């Protein structure tokens, strides 16, 4: 191919590529630079090179350090629990029963509620100790003297996690259901004929086949949950030890106006994401390899 | 035995759906009926919550959300479709590296660029401006759209393309007759997903907009600290803002999963 032909071929790609580099990579490069600076917008005179000070602050400031821990715990719990529940639901929905389509549609609904709206729903209509559905249900079940917990103040992180698990389980279920339905049926039949128990079929045929789908769900879930802002902001406003890094960055920059420190925290979020991404790219490249091998698309 | 599994499935479905049903039911109660313990299932239904909500000026935020979402979806398609074409039909060299680059930007958390973006907006006088939000939403959705469109366009059969080219069909004819029929459902699915993500977005909108350009999610944050007297109104607001996504999502369930899993799951 001549150079001109190669450029003609690249031309349709370039606008998207240039746009993406300009709008995503440049700001991150700027964040890196600012993270090395002493820069608080309330004190503009004192601006200068700070070296690693902001990073030291991120890991020694108890608030920011706990935000690192909260992010890890929140992401791990939400992704794992919703993946397990999603697996259970996918296995249930993989069977034939009356009204399967209706049940599937009901199960998808949580994922389709706008995240802020979902968080408001949980905060006000479900968790509220005086008139929320949860305590109301306890009153229904156990009568007047039923325990009436203050869900959000007694178990703040669990409260945020539960609302996120509710939103993400349907997503995991849908991915895993697609995986189950793409499973080659003849192998399952053969195993049954050979006398394999349902558990053996699940353990040795279904689970290995689902592995890729489980990884994909974990990966996509992690990318979104690690960045969660809406639920933390809405349900607890970052209080009671629920501030994750995105919320902490937002607060450091929006309320404390400490640009240097906020940027350093932002870079730490990126480092965490790189760990996930390394795992992620492996998963995705295995999907692409599969496409190359069998000729079907990933 | 199989009946037990069916019952369990129904039970789980109802359990997961209950909060959504509760949101809609509460939105249809009067404020005093909405805020009782135990909740009153049989309270008379009323549209007061919706009247309250629509009386409190939600139209500008809803229209802002609409223009930001539609605007960025159109811009995403204009950029993503040609790019996907170059990554699948007429492949550039190193196409898979380029594809990975797009995906990797999705793993760059929003907060990692928020501050410089805010400073640029401030410097350029673009704070509280919908067009700036459109640009950001485009960058947020472009990688997903490129991936999706590529996986759809990869279904265009190569032999037919070559045969058409040998028969002397020009590029416009090939695009119209061979590529478009395969691409159009993909474009519809991609648009839907980009629309939903833009419609749902809160962090950028919260930091970069205010009085004029605030979107529906930003408007909803006004209810974060509101008290029980407004429960029906809160639920009406949450229902109205979620409605476009709920309707679109139910209508296109399969496309949605496939899209959200970046085209990896059929």
Automatic annotation (TrEMBL), chain A:
<keyword id="KW-1003">Cell membrane</keyword>
<keyword id="KW-1133">Transmembrane helix</keyword>
<feature type="transmembrane region" description="Helical">
    <location>
        <begin position="105"/>
        <end position="122"/>
    </location>
</feature>
<keyword id="KW-0812">Transmembrane</keyword>
<dbReference type="InterPro" id="IPR000515">
    <property type="entry name" value="MetI-like"/>
</dbReference>
<feature type="domain" description="ABC transmembrane type-1">
    <location>
        <begin position="68"/>
        <end position="280"/>
    </location>
</feature>
<comment type="similarity">
    <text>Belongs to the binding-protein-dependent transport system permease family.</text>
</comment>
<protein>
    <submittedName>
        <fullName>Sugar ABC transporter permease</fullName>
    </submittedName>
</protein>
<dbReference type="InterPro" id="IPR035906">
    <property type="entry name" value="MetI-like_sf"/>
</dbReference>
<dbReference type="GO" id="GO:0005886">
    <property type="term" value="C:plasma membrane"/>
</dbReference>
<dbReference type="GO" id="GO:0055085">
    <property type="term" value="P:transmembrane transport"/>
</dbReference>
<keyword id="KW-0472">Membrane</keyword>
<keyword id="KW-0813">Transport</keyword>
<dbReference type="Pfam" id="PF00528">
    <property type="entry name" value="BPD_transp_1"/>
</dbReference>
<feature type="transmembrane region" description="Helical">
    <location>
        <begin position="72"/>
        <end position="93"/>
    </location>
</feature>
<feature type="transmembrane region" description="Helical">
    <location>
        <begin position="262"/>
        <end position="284"/>
    </location>
</feature>
């Amino acid at each position: 191919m001549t150079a001109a032909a190669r450029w003609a071929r690249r031309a349709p790609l370039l606008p998207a590529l240039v746009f993406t580099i300009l709008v995503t990579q440049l700001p991150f490069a700027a964040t890196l630079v600012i993270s090395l600076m002493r820069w608080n917008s309330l004190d503009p005179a004192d601006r200068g090179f700070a070296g690693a000070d902001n990073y030291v602050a991120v890991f020694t400031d108890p608030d920011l350090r706990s935000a690192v821990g909260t992010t890890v715990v929140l992401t791990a719990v939400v992704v794992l629990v919703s993946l397990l529940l999603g697996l259970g639901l996918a296995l249930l929905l993989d069977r034939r029963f009356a009204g399967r389509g209706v049940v599937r549609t009901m199960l998808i609904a949580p994922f389709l509620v706008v995240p802020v709206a979902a968080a408001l729903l949980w905060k006000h209509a479900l968790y509220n100790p005086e008139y929320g559905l949860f305590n109301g249900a306890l009153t229904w079940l156990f009568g007047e003297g039923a325990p009436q917990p203050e869900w959000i103040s007694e178990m703040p992180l669990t409260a945020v996690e539960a609302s996120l698990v509710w939103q993400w389980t349907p997503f995991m279920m849908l991915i895993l259901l697609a995986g189950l339905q793409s499973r080659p049926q003849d192998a399952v039949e053969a195993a049954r004929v050979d006398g394999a128990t349902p558990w053996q079929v699940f353990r040795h045929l279904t689970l290995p086949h689902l592995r890729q789908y489980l990884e994909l769900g974990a990966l996509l879930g992690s990318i979104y949950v690690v960045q969660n802002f809406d639920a933390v902001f809405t349900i607890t406003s970052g209080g009671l030890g629920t501030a994750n890094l995105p919320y902490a960055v937002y607060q450091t920059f929006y309320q404390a106006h400490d640009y240097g420190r906020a940027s350093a925290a932002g870079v730490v979020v990126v480092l965490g994401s790189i760990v996930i991404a390394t795992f992620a790219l492996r998963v995705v490249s295995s999907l692409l390899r599969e496409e190359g091998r069998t000729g079907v698309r990933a | 035995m199989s009946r037990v599994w069916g019952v369990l499935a129904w039970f789980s479905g109802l359990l997961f759906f209950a909060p959504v049903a509760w949101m809609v039911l509460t939105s249809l109660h009067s404020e005093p009926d909405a805020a009782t313990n135990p909740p009153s299932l049989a309270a008379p239904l009323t549209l007061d919550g919706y009247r309250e909500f629509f009386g409190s000026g939600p139209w500008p935020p809803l229209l802002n959300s609409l223009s930001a979402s539609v605007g960025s979806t159109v811009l995403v398609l204009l950029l993503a479709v040609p790019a996907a074409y170059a990554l699948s039909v007429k492949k550039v060299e190193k196409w898979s590296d380029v594809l990975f680059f797009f995906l990797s930007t999705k793993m760059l958390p929003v907060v990692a660029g928020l501050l410089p973006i805010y400073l640029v907006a401030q410097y350029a006088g673009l704070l509280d401006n919908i067009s700036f939000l459109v640009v950001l939403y485009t960058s947020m959705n472009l990688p997903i759209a490129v991936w999706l469109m590529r996986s759809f366009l990869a279904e265009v059969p190569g032999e037919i393309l070559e045969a058409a080219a040998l028969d002397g069909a020009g590029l416009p004819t090939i695009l119209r007759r061979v590529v478009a029929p395969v691409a159009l459902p993909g474009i519809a699915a991609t648009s839907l997903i980009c629309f939903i993500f833009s419609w749902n977005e809160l962090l950028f909108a919260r930091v970069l907009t205010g009085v004029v350009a605030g979107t529906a999610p930003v408007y909803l944050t006004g209810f974060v600290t509101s008290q029980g007297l407004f429960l029906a109104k809160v639920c009406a607001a949450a229902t109205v803002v979620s409605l476009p996504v709920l309707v679109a999502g139910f209508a296109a369930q399969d496309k949605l999963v496939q899209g959200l899993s970046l085209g990896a799951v059929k």
